[in-house]
Fold this protein.
Amino acid sequence: MFWKPTRGLFTGTRLWRTLAFRLAAAYALAGLFLVSLATASLYLVLVRELEKSTQLFLADKVHVLSTLLRDRPEDADALREEIELESAARQYEHFYIRLLDEHNKPLLMTPGMASQLDLEQLSEQTGSRLGRTVAMMGRNQLPFRVITVRSSLGSSLTQKDTLQIAIDVSEKEALLARFRLWFWGVFLATAALFPWVGYHIARRGIRPVEEMATTARHISSTNLRERILADGYPFELASLASTFNDMLDRLEDSFERISRFSADIAHDLRTPVNNIRGEAEVALSRARSSHEYREVIESCLEEAVRLSELIGDLLFLARAESPLTRLRSEPVDVRELLWGLKEYYEAWAVDCGVDLHMTLGDEPIIAELDRALLQRAVGNLVSNSLAHTPPGGSVHLEIEASASSIQIAVSDTGAGIPADSLPRVFDRFFRVDTSRSKGSGGTGLGLAIVQSIVQLHGGKAEISSQLGHGTRVSFCIPFSRQMTKL
Ligand SMILES: Nc1ncnc2c1ncn2[C@@H]1O[C@H](COP(=O)(O)OP(=O)(O)OP(=O)(O)O)[C@@H](O)[C@H]1O
Ligand SMILES: [Mg+2]
């Protein structure tokens, strides 16, 4: 039953496609392979060692008996004791020895040997397999290892005799059989346990992923506050969780901006519409002179112009964000363009009692730019400076060109911007002094438009300001950027 995926990540997923299943299968296969390898190699080592110990025993016996026969051929008692008694004294690993003369007639033989071994079969060994240990099955279906050697004996016996030693290896075979049984037991236990253990380890390992998936599932545009608590997660998943949390931070920030933006749009559109409506209602409430109607229509027209400008600005910002937006680039003499702007704003500056001057340099600066957009960006900056500089102050326009970029800056000696507002002045609809800006008709889109224009040209806008001392807004546009048509 533990295979059945019931909740979370696995719901509705085919089992074999789950990570837990694949990991469990991999654990199980690897575990089975390793356990089989370990037990099989142990088994082989055991077989070899047991075989070796049998051979050593036989070689030892051959050595003892050969030495006896060679050195003390007359000592028949010692030989008999070795052959007839020693084996009988053993409880396990019985062994049997017989000594044959050159005509294969038994001279000496361990008692009971004939009942255990087929002596005729044993005699067949004397020819071809001399000196080698061979396996043989006894009369009682007990396994034996047999060795046959020629032995040179002393004069009273024969010259060339044969020595045969057979050892009962049934205990060793039983040990190997027990080992094989144990091996299959371990194999089956591994086959049953490893998938289970592997599955639970895998489930435990991927639990953080499930938690992340659950968090992701709970996130919607109205609920962006959920975060993954990565305490205790392994390093890799903790870094994934923190990346995920960072992404949520950015999303939350963007959503907040968008909803603030929508609220600001609604507010800024509602004000002129309400004004038009209010004036029209008042005008229609009773009969008016043509002069009064004219005044109302003029006022409505003013509001309508404000409305259409606002809508135009919003449309511009929306278009600027589209990846399909293209610039209408052309070679522009930037000094001439700024000179034209200065002339345009000169009258307003005089009205404000502000000194508008420029530093343009001597060399002509020709760059591939969108003329209308650049005019709009610089115009926005100059009008901001004029709007926030008291009479007697000054506004300075400057341009600097390097091999790779041009920098345009507008600075003034005006009111300045508080430090805490500076990071937000490029945001849409952001106004420092809301009441004053509203009164003076500012919508808070001017700097956002400047930034969009600069970004469309591949540049970057910057602002620095000191409250009560003035503001400087500058932007840098690279020459090298390939310009495309809007
Ligand atoms: N040179 C400046 N000196 C002081 N404050 C400034 C200056 N430039 C901008 N600001 C402040 O930054 C705010 C944002 O400027 P931005 O140009 O985006 O909007 P706005 O001038 O209020 O409206 P809009 O330009 O859309 O008519 C302004 O409301 C103003 O408070
Ligand atoms: Mg402005």
About this structure: The pocket of magnesium ion (ligand 2) is lined by residues 380, 383-384, 442, 446 (CB under 6 Å). The chain has 13 helices and twelve strands.
